[in-house]
Task: inverse folding
């Protein structure tokens, strides 16, 4: 979704803003723009398409000045066009605004302002903000800050804004309500941004602005107040990752880099959540007694995080006596889910800013539920609004297609399930020790899959060209099928569908022919699921289907039924999804590469979906 940056210091603002916007590109956008305070005027440049287009405009018509704001726009109100691109201006060009979020009452504000003589140029909701501020100043607001306070109070919806005043050159303003925004503190210069990776290379600490707060950011200090005007003491915090974590590090894409990071991240999570005595430690947020009495868990999430939630449900139901449900946050928030205060709600999110998941947390809190988030981003809204957090600690995930966050979420669910099991004596300490010992084999198994990427690449290149593909799995690997299909469709643009293999005969079998790749997750299991999967594969084979299996190393028999096999090492049934999905991530990756798509920034997608 839209990205916001701002700069005030002694360097030329335009290159700093462009660099920040480049680091926000992963959020998804279709146009970009910057505004710089230059010799008593605010000047802007905007362009549709990639940032390179804006850079070309700036080469031809540079902007001089040491304070400015910038924006990458993911169109909501009005098509991607130069005129709809941010920054937007007041009529007198004394106020410029960049905005992420949606102003729900913009139409009525626009009518009111039009009645007062304001002339609007764009179709955006954002443009009402500079005009409202201008109107407040006209009507006698005592200062730019007072005008911003009054204007923001009139807005309904969500916003993270950066504001530049022609007549207050020693400050850049920013404010947030429901959309992410941080302030970065540098050496004699300060920044605003949608997230830390945008400015990580330039800052020493960060202030996480809270909802309903406004900051006046000066070159050497930051002043914060609430919408009611009460002063807030800034609370700078150290940043827990390094600037290299947000770089490609020699890989051709961020996604490939992030796939390769998984063994290290999974190992680190085991080290972090398992104490020296072998017990699982999930931190002090929720007491053991709470878990003893718990009888229902509700997991809510979107996209890939939802698939991790499905895995979490299967695992927790399998290992504990607790009833567990998983729901899409966008459905959960509009249905009538009959949740009582005794239900633990677990939101799962990489970004911690997904609008639907956040809304679900707020509903859960209103119902009196405890909320235990699984999240990757420190200081994110979800982290701040939950009672306790289990961090996935992956470092910044830049590729739009989630990979390392997914396997880290799965690992957290495995640890949480075993923790709850231990507290409730569903398993003996010896049994839990056995599970943990096998969980420790997972990072090496993932490493092995990645080592085998050349084989996966050849298979992906052989099957990438059709219009569609089908992914099938059962039990623990039903979510793996859904996630494999999602990865494929989002980066290679090939239609892909994930299905529970047992459902084949109820419809999708009609699709099978010699040209449809059917990816079957058929790793060996200790129960009857493997045999059932084999039967499903035979049904596809009987109809001349093009079968690609994800199978356990050493399973020679499966070769007879399939065109190609992606072999993965054997791990305990419950943990196979963490390993199997990595083969599918690579399969999707190489299919996308063969199809020539923009892998890190697939069309129409945003990394962080901060609007409904
Ligand atoms: O930041 P979140 O984990 O809450 O994001 C949820 C989804 O938007 C995200 O997983 C999306 O589906 C990814 N593009 C999948 O690769």
Result:
């Amino acid at each position: 979704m839209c990205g916001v940056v701002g700069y005030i210091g002694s360097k030329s603002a335009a290159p700093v803003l462009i660099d920040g916007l480049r680091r926000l590109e992963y959020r998804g956008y279709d146009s970009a723009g910057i505004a710089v305070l230059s010799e008593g005027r605010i000047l802007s440049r905007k362009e549709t398409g990639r940032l390179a287009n804006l850079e070309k405009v700036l080469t031809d018509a540079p902007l001089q000045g040491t304070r400015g704001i910038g924006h990458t726009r993911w169109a909501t109100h009005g098509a991607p066009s130069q005129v709809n691109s941010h920054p937007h201006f007041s009529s007198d060009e004394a106020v410029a605004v960049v905005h992420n979020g949606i102003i729900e009452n913009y139409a009525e504000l626009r009518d009111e302002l039009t009645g007062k003589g304001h002339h609007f140029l764009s179709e955006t909701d954002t443009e009402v903000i500079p005009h409202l501020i201008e109107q407040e100043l006209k009507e006698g607001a005592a200062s730019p800050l007072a005008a911003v306070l009054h204007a923001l109070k009139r807005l309904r919806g969500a916003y993270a804004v950066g504001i530049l005043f022609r007549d207050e050159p020693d400050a850049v303003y920013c404010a947030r309500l429901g959309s992410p925004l941080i302030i970065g503190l540098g050496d004699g210069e300060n920044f605003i941004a949608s997230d830390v990776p945008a400015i990580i290379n330039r800052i020493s600490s960060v202030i996480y602005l809270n909802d309903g707060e406004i900051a006046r950011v000066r070159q050497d200090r930051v002043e914060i107040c609430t919408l009611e005007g009460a002063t807030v003491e800034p609370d700078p915090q150290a940043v827990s990752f390094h600037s290299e974590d947000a770089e490609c590090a020699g890989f051709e894409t961020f996604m490939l880099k992030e796939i390769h990071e998984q063994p290290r991240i999974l190992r680190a999570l085991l080290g972090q959540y398992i104490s020296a005595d072998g017990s699982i430690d999930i931190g002090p947020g929720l007491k053991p007694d709470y878990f003893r009495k718990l009888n229902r868990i509700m997991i809510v999430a979107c996209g890939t995080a939802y698939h991790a939630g499905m895995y979490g449900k299967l695992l927790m139901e399998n290992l504990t006596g607790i009833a567990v449900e998983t729901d899409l946050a966008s459905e959960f928030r509009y249905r009538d889910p009959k949740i009582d205060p005794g239900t633990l709600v677990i939101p799962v999110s990489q970004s911690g800013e997904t609008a639907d998941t956040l809304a679900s947390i707020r509903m859960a809190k209103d119902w009196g539920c405890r909320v235990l988030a699984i999240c990757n981003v420190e200081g994110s809204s979800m982290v701040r609004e939950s009672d306790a957090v289990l961090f996935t600690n992956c470092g910044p995930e830049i590729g739009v297609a989630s990979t390392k966050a997914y396997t880290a979420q799965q690992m957290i669910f495995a640890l949480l399930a075993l923790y709850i099991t231990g507290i409730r004596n569903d398993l003996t300490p010896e049994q839990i020790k056995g599970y943990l010992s096998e969980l420790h084999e997972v990072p090496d198994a993932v490493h092995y899959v990645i080592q085998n990427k050349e084989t996966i690449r050849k298979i992906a290149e052989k099957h990438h060209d059709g219009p569609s593909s089908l992914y099938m799995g059962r039990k623990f690997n039903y979510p793996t099928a859904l996630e494999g299909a999602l990865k494929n469709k989002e980066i290679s643009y090939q239609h892909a569908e994930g299905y529970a293999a047992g459902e084949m005969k109820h419809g999708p079998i009609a699709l099978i022919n010699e040209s449809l790749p059917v990816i079957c997750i058929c790793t060996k299991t200790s129960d009857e699921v493997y045999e059932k999967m084999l039967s499903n594969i035979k049904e596809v084979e009987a109809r001349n289907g093009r079968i690609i299996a994800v199978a356990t190393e050493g399973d020679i028999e499966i070769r007879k039924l399939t065109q190609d096999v992606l072999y993965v090492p054997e791990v305990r049934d419950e943990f196979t999804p963490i390993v199997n999905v990595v083969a599918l991530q690579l399969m999707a990756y190489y299919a996308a590469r063969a199809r020539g798509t923009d892998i890190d920034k697939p069309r129409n997608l945003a990394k962080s979906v901060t609007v409904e």
